[in-house]
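# step 3/5: fold
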Amino acid sequence: MERIEKWLRMGVPSGWADVSMRTLKVAVVAFVALMLKERMDDSWDAPACAVDAAWVAGGTLALNVVLTWLRPRTRPQ
């Protein structure tokens, strides 16, 4: 059971800087992936890809904020 808990904690951001960087990375990766998809469809719709990437990044931000708030705090000894 301890192994599962350790594995689940790996995805929890370590702080607000980590949340910001994760969100930025997701936004960039989503935009590039969506642009490549558009390229394969022989069209370039950068504004729509940017909006879709922003939605994906927003969902990731919300999830990471919740995980950060729910992270168990270390108690001072």
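# step 4/5: annotate
The mean pLDDT is 85.
# step 5/5: archive (pending)
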